[in-house]
Every structure is written in C-alpha cells, then in structure tokens.
C-alpha cells in the first residue's frame, strides 16, 4: 500500500495518523471496484465459495465494504469522492430491485443475509444525510421492505441476535414496520451471556474470543447511537411510504441500557490492551481470525461512546499498531484484497461460513473514523502498550485466562483454562460438528507470535499446546469441554475428560498453570490406563523463509526460526528423563508461515491410576534470550509432598500447587 509519510512526533510507536487510516480505507475500497457487478449490488471476489453460496457471498462483499465506506463517508462529513457515495447508493437500488439481475436474497430464518443486513443498517444510519435521505422514495421502500424481512425471524442464538436488533432499530428510526419485541428480546437475551468483568460468552456455554469485542460490545452501542439519533446524520428521515409507522419509544428511549453497555465496555477495556504484542499483533485465538484487525473495534468504540478508561494516545497506538502489523506483512495482498487467511491466504484459519468477502468484517476497525479529526484520539501523542513498558501478568477469571507479556521480546501469551466453544447440549454450531474440538479453543496456550498448526492433517495429531493420551493406533485424545477451577494472580487451573477408543473412561486430566516470566509451568494430574502413552506439545513456531531449526535431548525439545523465535518444552517431573524429546515439522499447516515445527515430549507408558507430570513451556522472541532447553530443567526445582507440588525457581520464588 502507498501510505502518507509517518509522523514520529505525534505517533512515536507506529508513525500513523488519521491520514493513514483514511488512506488504507480508500485503497481497500478502490481495490474492490473491479469485482462489482454493473449495478454495484454485488461484489464477486476471487476465493473459495462459502457454505451460503455465491449470491450470498456477493451480498457479503457489498455489505461489509459498505460498512467501511460508511465510516469513511460519515467520518469526513460527506467530503469524499462523490463516486463513492453514488456507488453504494446504486447498490442499494439494484440489490433491492427484483428485476435488476443483481437482487439480494431475501432474509430467511438463520440465513447469512441477516449478518449482512446488519452492516447495511449500520451503514445507512451513519451516512443518513448523504445516502438514505437522497434515495428515491421507491428505493427507500424497497430497502425497508428487504430489511423488514428480519421481523419475526429466528436467528442463531448467539451474537446474531444483535443483527436483528440493529436492523430493526434502523427501521424504527425511519418509521418503517418493525417489531419492538424482536429488539427487546434480542437485548434481553445477551444479558444471559454476560458473565462479568466486561465479558460475554457468544451464546450458551464458554465461548470466549474476539466476538466479545467486535460483536457483543460493538453492536449494543451502535444500537444506542441509533436510539439516540446520534451519528453523522442525526435527523430522522421521512417515512418510507404508505403504511409506515413510528413506534413509541423507538428513538430517544434506551430503557437505561446504554449506561449498562458503557460500563461493561469500560471494564473490558481496562485489560484489553494486554492482548496485543509490541508489534501490534493480537493474540491468535478464537474463530473468524480472518477478520484480523477488527480486533481494534472495541477500543475505538470506547472512545466513540465516551466510556473508555484508556488514554487517547493508547487508544490510537493499539488500533494503529494492529492495522499496521498486517499492512507490513502483506495485508491486503498485491491486488489490494483482504484474503481468507491471517497474513497470506490460508484456509485452515477459516470456517465453513467464510466466503471470499468475509475478511471485510475488518471494516469494523475503522469505526474510529467517526471520531472527528480534532478529537484527542487523533491529536494526542501515542502512548506505549503495557508490554512495551514492563513484563505483564493479567488474570481474567471470567473467560478463565491468564495473560503474560514480556517486555524484552514484546510477545503476549494467553493460557487457556476456560474457553472451549462447546455447546452445553452438544448441538452443532455453524462452525463445527457436534462435540468436536477446535484448534483455536482446545489448546492450553496461544500467543501474539504463534498459531497452532490448523491444517486438517496436522490438527488430527493435536500436538501444539495439547496434552493427549494416545490410543494403540496413535489417535490422540481431545480436550473438549473445559471445567475451570481457579484463575488469579499467576495461577489458573481446570480439568477435562479425555476419551480413548476401546478403553473405559473418560479419563480425568487436571492441569494447573503457573506463570514465571516467559515460562508457563504446567502441573498435570493425568488419569489413564496402565501402559497408555502420553504426549505433550509446546508452542508451534513458523516462518516462510526457511524451516525452523530443531534440537532435542533427554526430557526436552526445541524449535527455533531464523528470526530467533524459539519454543521449548522441558519435562520437569514424571516424564522419562532418559527419553529424548522430539520436534514435529510441518509444511503448509500454520497461519504464521509455510514451515512450522512443534517440540514435544512423550511418556511411553503411563503407570495407571493418576500420574503427576510437570512440564515447562517456554517461548522467546529475542534471539539473545533464546532458551537453553538443556539447562531449563535445572532452572526449576520440583518437590512433591503432602498432596502438593512446590516449584522453586532460580531467582528464589516459590509457588505451591495443591493437588486434587
């Protein structure tokens, strides 16, 4: 991308200003034009077709890019190239005209169109003076009729409830038919998923990921803007035609909800900066990661809703750093397109609902453009991220996570003892089969510098950050439902049940994680049949320039990229001290690079009953501080007595872990 000159006085960390954001938005929008249909209602992008089909994918291209265009248009108070406004207005006319040859599919129960309708509704609200108010009355009627397909419909019982809320609230704001019950029921339903400390689960169960920020916090406060009539276009447009009605309380009456949403977002944002590495990368965890820098959306929303606890300079530093991180690594691609992947195109990071235009939910990151150019988030100097200031430890009991970041290499690591994305009833979700485990939730650890190997054949082995019992044919057990027990300070614990084909069971595996600098010490209590092999893997490291180098010895294994990113796994207790660790290499399996490697330990024969294993997991990004894996075993002394494990570190710190 061609970007404006950096401003290191205003932005000493990233060099980015508002002009960079506007430039990126303009280039993303411009690159899409060759893929638009003649009436501009569909954008047929190259790439794998989603499970919803080509027509839905074309609508997705319009809707998600319209969201980006809306933030750009409204943020500039309409002072943009008029062709951009005309382009999306034309798409509304053609997309809702059954005779255009480009008409959008009607909304149906749990249809993908519901997701896209919400982006269109938000875009229409934010650009009301420049698009909606200028539309021909007949086009307004058709758009309202199409959005009105939401009324009385059933959505998926998760963040999709909010798509119905914002779409029908927009209809209310323009005097179109809608259901107040749909809006209230949707907002009431998300209350069932609020678990405290600013965290929602995305539907029933323990489904914690970036949807908490880019959906569960974002949409309620965008709904509030509609209710208040706030935004770039605050005037309520005339009715859309005969039979239109204005619902009592539709505009200006939020029932007290807005203040609740503002308090919750403020609480969430107090710890959210700890998810981002010094290079701007968000921790690589959860589904829909192809939305990439959409992870910055809640930070801007906090400023837009005037509820953020973050200093203006930190808000911009975090958001600019996230977008810059991807831009510097080839995102968008040489065509100017956002592809299905993380850096390069990489389908294993996607889900079946992901189509070629799905990555444009990254548009949510540009909600900050709604803040005026003279707002403090654009004018105050950048501040440092927490990990740039000192080593960080953050306990998040609600999702069951520990975060630890190290200033020396800028890496943030997430230890997972609470998010499994499992439905309580074992029912299927849009993303996976009933009861299946997911590499973006099932692992013990995720970081801002690594990803699990997620290609199907690689994930079948379940190596990275996984402890598995191995069946006679080598099939590993899975970590499905996670039962959290403790999460405070530098310690978190949980347990899960492992199953083995042809064996009695399930077998209980309980784990406590203890943080110490860049290390995670895992204390496992592993129940298994006598003779059953047990295997544990560390972080998978990846690069595209060359395969990582590897090394191993008795009770340890290490993988290191040419850039110095090093992953080590060391057996401290309970492992066979004479058995060398191994490193498994893969090609084309990892979102972070072509070549990946995962260090592993293996216990050849479990003694039966419950066996104690203690493992050190290390990840370092500074070549000068790369771990000497052969010496790490002597860095932690393990003593087991009185039903507890005592860990004594070389610096004198002692931690006691009570056994169950």
Short summary:
The chain is of the alpha+beta class. The chain has helices spanning 18-32, 54-75, 82-95, 113-126, 137-147, 160-173, 180-191, 211-228, 257-269, 297-304, 312-327, 376-379, 386-389, 456-459, 629-632; strands at residues 194-196, 199-200, 392-396, 401-406, 411-416, 445-447, 467-469, 483-488, 491-498, 507-516, 519-528, 534-537, 541-543, 549-553, 556-560, 566-573, 582-590, 593-603, 609-620, 636-641, 644-649, 654-658. Helix content is 26%, strand content 21%.
Strand order within the widest beta sheet: 8-9-10-11-19-16-15-14
- Mean of pLDDT: 94
Q: How does the major sheet shape up?
A: 8 strands, antiparallel
Q: Which parts are unreliable, with pLDDT below 50 for 5 consecutive residues or more?
A: 233-250, 427-434
Individual helix count: 15
- Shape descriptor: globular
What proportion of the residues is helical, as a percent range? 25-40%
How would you characterize the overall build of this protein?
The protein is an alpha+beta fold and 660 residues long. The chain is built from 15 helices and 22 strands. The protein has helices spanning 18-32, 54-75, 82-95, 113-126, 137-147, 160-173, 180-191, 211-228, 257-269, 297-304, 312-327, 376-379, 386-389, 456-459, 629-632, and strands at residues 194-196, 199-200, 392-396, 401-406, 411-416, 445-447, 467-469, 483-488, 491-498, 507-516, 519-528, 534-537, 541-543, 549-553, 556-560, 566-573, 582-590, 593-603, 609-620, 636-641, 644-649, 654-658. It starts with 17 loop residues before the first helix and ends with a strand.
């Amino acid at each position: 991308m061609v970007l404006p000159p950096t401003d290191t006085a205003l932005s000493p960390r990233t060099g980015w200003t508002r002009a960079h954001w506007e430039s990126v938005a303009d280039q993303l929008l411009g690159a899409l034009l060759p893929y638009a249909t003649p009436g501009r209602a569909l954008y047929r992008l190259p790439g794998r077709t989603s499970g919803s089909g080509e027509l839905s994918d074309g609508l997705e291209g319009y809707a998600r890019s319209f969201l980006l265009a809306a933030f750009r248009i409204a943020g500039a108070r309409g002072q943009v190239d008029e062709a951009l406004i005309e382009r999306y207005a034309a798409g509304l006319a053609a997309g809702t005209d059954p005779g255009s040859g480009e008409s959008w599919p009607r909304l149906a129960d749990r249809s993908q169109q519901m997701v896209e309708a919400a982006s269109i509704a938000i875009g229409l609200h934010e650009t009301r003076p420049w698009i909606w108010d200028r539309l021909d009355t007949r086009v307004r009627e058709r758009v309202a009729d199409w959005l009105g397909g939401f009324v009385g419909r059933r959505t998926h019982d998760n963040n999709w409830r909010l798509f119905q809320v914002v779409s029908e609230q927009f209809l209310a704001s323009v005097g179109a038919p809608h259901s107040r019950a749909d809006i209230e029921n949707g907002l009431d339903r998300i209350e069932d998923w609020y678990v405290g400390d600013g965290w929602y689960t995305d539907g029933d169960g323990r489904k914690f990921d970036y949807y908490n920020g880019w959906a569960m916090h974002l949409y309620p406060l965008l709904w509030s803007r509609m209710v208040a009539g706030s935004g770039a276009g605050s005037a309520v447009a005339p009715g859309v035609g005969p039979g239109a009605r204005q619902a009592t309380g539709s505009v200006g009456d939020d029932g007290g909800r807005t203040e609740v949403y503002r308090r919750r977002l403020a609480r969430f944002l107090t710890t959210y900066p700890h998810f981002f590495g010094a290079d701007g990368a968000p921790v690589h965890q959860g589904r829909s990661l192809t939305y990439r820098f959409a992870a910055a959306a809640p930070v801007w929303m906090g400023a837009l809703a005037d509820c953020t606890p973050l200093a203006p300079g930190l808000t911009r530093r975090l958001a600019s750093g996230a977008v810059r991180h991807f831009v510097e690594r080839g995102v968008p691609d040489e065509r100017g397109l956002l592809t299905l992947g993380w850096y390069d195109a990489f389908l294993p990071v996607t889900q079946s609902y992901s189509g070629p235009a799905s990555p444009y939910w990254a548009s949510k990151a540009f909600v900050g453009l709604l803040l005026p150019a003279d707002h403090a988030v654009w004018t105050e100097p950048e501040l440092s991220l927490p990990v740039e200031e000192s080593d960080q430890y953050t306990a998040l009991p609600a999702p069951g996570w520990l975060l630890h970041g190290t200033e020396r290499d800028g890496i943030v690591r997430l230890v997972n003892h609470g998010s499994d994305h499992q439905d309580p009833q074992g029912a299927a979700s849009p993303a996976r089969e009933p009861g299946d485990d997911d590499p973006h939730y099932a692992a013990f650890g995720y970081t801002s510098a690594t990803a699990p190997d997620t290609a199907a054949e690689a994930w079948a082995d379940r190596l990275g950050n996984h402890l598995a019992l191995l069946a006679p044919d080598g099939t590993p057990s899975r970590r499905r439902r996670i039962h959290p027990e403790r999460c405070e300070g530098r310690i978190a614990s949980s347990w899960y049940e492992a199953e083995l084909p042809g064996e009695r069971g399930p077998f209980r595996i309980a784990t406590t994680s203890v943080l110490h600098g860049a290390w995670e010490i895992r204390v496992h209590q592993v129940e298994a049949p006598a003779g059953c092999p047990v295997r544990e893997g560390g972080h998978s490291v990846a690069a595209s320039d060359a395969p990582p180098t590897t090394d191993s010895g008795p009770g340890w294994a290490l993988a290191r990229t040419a850039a110095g990113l090093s992953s080590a796994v060391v057996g401290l207790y309970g492992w066979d001290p004479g058995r060398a660790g191994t490193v498994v290499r893969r090609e084309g399996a990892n979102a972070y690079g072509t070549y990946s490697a995962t260090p592993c330990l293996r216990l050849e024969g479990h003694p039966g009953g419950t066996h104690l294993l203690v493992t050190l997991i290390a990840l370092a990004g500074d070549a000068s501080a790369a771990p000497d894996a052969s010496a790490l075993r002597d860095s932690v002394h393990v003593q087991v007595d009185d039903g507890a494990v005592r860990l004594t570190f070389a610096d004198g710190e002692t931690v006691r872990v009570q056994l169950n």
